[in-house]
């Protein structure tokens, strides 16, 4: 892509100081987000998706340490900003919809108050203007009777409505980047489809870049332009959505796609799973992280970690045998 990225993450590593020792949760991760485009971060539970996004928001818990890397946004490295400057970026320029969104609303404030607050913090506007704008936003995310809903508490809204309210809150200040961490996982499929449509529509209108975190490849196919596949804290394959779905190169990506049900899957047929479990993040070795689960692994995989290499197609993959396996 020749366009300049809005957000670019270089060599980001995050570790946690735990009782069991140092856990390297994210290791040398690189990716870029472009205006109006969606990057999906995909991988199994525990692979470092949330930790990566919390690092961008500078919301990691105290025991976490960013041990290397930079996060460039708007000509500055977010990792070097002071607290006040970071507060004005957070919510205003970069907003996030958190994992487990249905518990993210505060039960003691009304929906309207919670959205208006984001506006009052970041914009020079009066309370009346904030209320009007909040009602416009509620209307925009298709919450019916916005004026009435403004005064309702979270428990009075259905799951899908709460999710729409959270989208309204994240988008209140028209951020340049939206990070959505599994925003539709807790919703049933039809409501999920509606929310994804809405996000795409709002993205078009505001031209924002989205980082969409999910382990659901069906959702990826629906919403992503580019995809980064993470495994054990590292990006092991990246490419545009067609490359990933039509010509996956990494054995792990192939495994993920094979474990997805298709229209040809018969009722009662067992889906393929990837055998084995993720490596220990405490004692990282020089081996390929996926070696113990990989059907193609050879001696070299146990000795040398493969690095991301660019293919002729422009996709990148970290596997010693990415050119030979089919
Ligand atoms: N508070 C913490 N203390 C110690 N280690 C942590 C903490 N939070 C995360 N980790 C480590 O970081 C790794 C990555 O966690 P992360 O939450 O980013 O996973 P994830 O990909 O978002 O998974 P999920 O799909 O389940 O949300 C975990 O495997 C864990 O080892
Ligand atoms: Mg997570």
Descriptive report:
The protein has 326 residues and is an alpha/beta fold. It folds into 2 domains: 7-93 and 176-279, P-loop containing nucleotide triphosphate hydrolases (Rossmann fold, 3-Layer(aba) Sandwich); 102-172, no CATH class. Helices cover 32% and strands 23% of the residues. It has 11 helices and 12 strands. The protein has helices at residues 49-57, 83-89, 111-122, 127-140, 146-150, 159-171, 189-206, 217-223, 241-246, 251-258, 299-303, and strands at 7-18, 21-33, 38-42, 64-73, 76-77, 94-97, 177-181, 209-214, 226-231, 234-240, 309-310, 316-317. The strands form 2 sheets. Strands 6-7-8-3-9-10-12-11 form an 8-stranded mixed beta sheet, with helices on both faces. Strand 4 (64-73) and strand 5 (76-77) form a beta hairpin. Helix 3 (111-122) crosses helix 4 (127-140), helix 3 (111-122) packs parallel to helix 6 (159-171) and helix 4 crosses helix 6. It is globular. The model has no long low-confidence stretch (mean pLDDT 91). Magnesium ion binds next to helix 1.
Q: Please identify, by name, the CATH architecture of the largest domain.
A: 3-Layer(aba) Sandwich
Helix content: 25-40%
* Cofactors and ligands: adenosine-5'-triphosphate, magnesium ion
Order of helices and strands: EEEHEEHEHHHHEHEHEEHHHEE
Number of domains: 2
Q: Could you give the order of strands across the largest sheet?
A: 6-7-8-3-9-10-12-11
Q: What shape does the CA trace take?
A: globular
* Poorly predicted ranges: none
Outline the biggest β-sheet.
8 strands, mixed
């Amino acid at each position: 892509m020749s366009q300049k990225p809005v957000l670019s993450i270089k060599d980001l590593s995050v570790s946690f100081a735990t009782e069991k020792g140092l856990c390297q949760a994210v290791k040398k991760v690189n990716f870029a987000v472009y205006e109006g485009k969606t990057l999906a971060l995909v991988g199994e539970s525990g692979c470092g998706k949330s930790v990566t996004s919390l690092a961008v928001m500078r919301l990691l818990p105290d025991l976490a340490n960013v041990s290397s890397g930079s996060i460039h946004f708007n000509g500055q490295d977010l990792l070097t900003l002071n607290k006040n400057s970071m507060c004005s970026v957070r919510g205003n320029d970069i907003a996030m919809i958190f994992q487990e969104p249905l518990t993210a609303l505060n039960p003691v404030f009304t929906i309207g108050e919670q959205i208006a607050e984001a506006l009052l913090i970041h914009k020079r506007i009066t309370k009346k203007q904030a209320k009007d704008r909040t009602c416009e936003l509620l209307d925009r995310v298709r919450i019916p009777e916005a004026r009435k809903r403004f005064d309702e508490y979270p428990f009075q809204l259905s799951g899908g409505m709460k999710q729409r309210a959270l989208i309204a809150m994240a988008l209140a200040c028209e951020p340049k980047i939206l990070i959505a961490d599994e925003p539709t996982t807790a919703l049933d499929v039809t409501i999920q489809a509606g929310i994804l449509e809405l996000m795409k529509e709002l993205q078009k209108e505001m031209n924002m870049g989205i980082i969409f975190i999910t382990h659901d490849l069906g959702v990826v196919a629906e919403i992503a332009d580019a995809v980064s596949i993470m495994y054990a804290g590292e990006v092991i394959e990246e490419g545009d959505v067609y490359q990933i779905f039509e010509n996956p190169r990494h054995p792990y990506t192939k495994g993920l796609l094979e474990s997805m049900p298709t229209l040809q899957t018969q009722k009662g047929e067992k889906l393929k799973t990837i055998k084995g479990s993720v490596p220990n993040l405490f004692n990282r070795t020089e081996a390929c992280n996926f070696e113990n689960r990989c059907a193609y692994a050879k001696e070299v995989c146990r000795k040398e970690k493969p690095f991301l290499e660019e293919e002729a197609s422009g996709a990148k993959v970290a596997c010693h045998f990415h050119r030979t396996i089919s």
